[in-house]
Specification:
alpha+beta, seven-stranded mixed β-sheet, five-stranded antiparallel β-sheet, 7 helices, 20 strands, 28% strand, globular
């Protein structure tokens, strides 16, 4: 469903939040630890009830260099993003507690997984992307199994009692008639999960906001299945509002192998070199975009565009919902005439469905500047939102 709304200023949103709080629609709690917990939704069963470690409100970044890099114009199907040494490797991946060897719940795909293996490891992505890449780099037909041990400091962090919110008022537990129970999962304002760990009936609650698997040393085990050249992949570039949420939405699609966010379709002179601050200020003319590599044997550009249409409002010009500016415009940037034709057909169908004129621009792919590392897989790093294929969990594009 496409959501369309009128622009509201930050002050208006603050006033709206206070009204919602009065009616019990939004629960906002400030604790001694300084953590603001806004419970927007809750679910009655927690799939990892026996684990005390659940979602965390802390930021967890795995950084490399923060330099921007141009990755080439669309001179060929893959420009400079891929080279002949890159491989698409299919593995059987399992994740467990390194001490007990028991399987653990993850926020990324396990089982049959395909990994784009490059000469250099991915920079700025989530910890598990780097760890899996390191693991798969050493696998081949001759070396079919491998393991990597990831300490807490390189994954979800140490478990800390500072993120256990104690003595929360009993009255905060009511939302649309749902009462909190022990082991009930909660959804934080930025998309993370927390867990009710103690209930004193009629008195108060305690909520654990540590990350799932916080404090655990994680064991990744992979078994080599097959290998294909990276030439089996296709690329498309899409823009539809802020790139944080769009990247995660596209990464969840079956057949999508790799995503990265960046800036494109702007000026290419020295005075127009993009970074997040300059692009948001409208000084370069660039749009926030997502670069997608997908396997056309498993999915199609039509399927990707269907998700693209449902994730944003293509009838809005120079904005998306409450984000205003040309950097948030809607766009499809193709790398072949075949992609152009598919996009034109998809746009025509969407316009007919909505009975409105689309403001989506359809242009050849231009120079794509990779965004700063902070913005790569941002929602997965900041709020531990799931990137599993087929996940339908609501994406919350708020900074944590």
């Amino acid at each position: 469903m496409v959501v369309r709304g009128h622009y509201r200023s930050p002050l208006q949103w603050r006033a709206l939040g206070r009204c919602m709080m009065c009616f019990g629609g939004l629960i906002m709690m400030r604790t001694r630890s300084g953590l603001s917990l806004n419970v927007l939704s809750c679910f009655s069963r927690n799939p990892w009830q026996k684990q005390k470690q659940v979602m965390s409100s802390r930021r967890r970044f795995i950084h490399g260099s923060s330099q921007y890099r141009p990755v080439g114009a669309a001179a060929g199907p893959f420009a400079e993003l891929l080279n002949e040494n890159d491989r698409l490797v299919t593995i059987d991946l399992s994740v467990s507690n390194s001490v007990t060897r028991e399987p653990i719940e993850t926020l990324f795909d396990t089982g049959r997984v395909r990994v784009l293996v490059r000469d250099s490891p991915p920079v700025g992505k989530c910890w598990y992307v780097s760890a899996i890449h390191e693991l798969v780099q050493g696998l081949s037909k001759d070396n079919r199994e491998g393991t990597v041990i990831v300490p807490p400091s390189m994954s979800y962090g140490e478990y800390t009692t500072k993120l256990v919110l104690r003595n929360l008022p009993w009255g905060l537990s009511k939302r649309e008639g749902v009462k909190w129970k022990e082991n009930m999962g909660l959804r934080l304002w930025n998309g993370q999960r927390a867990c009710v760990v103690m209930v004193k009936k009629g008195q108060n609650y305690s909520v654990d906001a540590n990350a799932i698997n916080a404090g655990l040393t994680i064991l990744l085990m992979a078994r080599f299945i097959e290998e294909k050249p990276s030439s089996v992949l296709e690329e498309i570039q899409l823009a539809g509002g802020g790139f944080w949420g769009l990247e995660l939405a596209l990464a969840r699609l079956s057949g999508v192998v790799y995503t990265e966010v960046g800036y494109t379709q702007g000026g290419n002179g020295e005075n127009n070199l993009p970074n997040y601050t300059r692009v948001c200020a409208g000084k370069t003319g660039h749009v926030e975009a997502v670069r997608v590599l997908f396997d056309s044997r498993e999915t199609s550009l039509q399927s990707i565009l269907r998700r693209f249409w449902t994730f944003h409002d293509p009838t809005q010009k120079g904005m998306q919902r409450n984000d205003i500016g040309r950097q948030y415009r809607s766009g499809i940037y193709y790398l072949s005439e075949e992609q152009k034709e598919i996009a034109q057909e998809s746009m025509a169908r969407e316009a007919e469905t909505l009975k409105q004129r689309l403001e989506t621009e359809l242009l050849p792919a231009n120079v794509f500047w990779r965004a700063e590392n902070t913005h790569q897989s941002h929602l997965e790093k900041v709020s531990n939102q799931s990137s599993k294929k087929g996940t339908t969990q609501l994406i919350r594009s708020y900074d944590g």
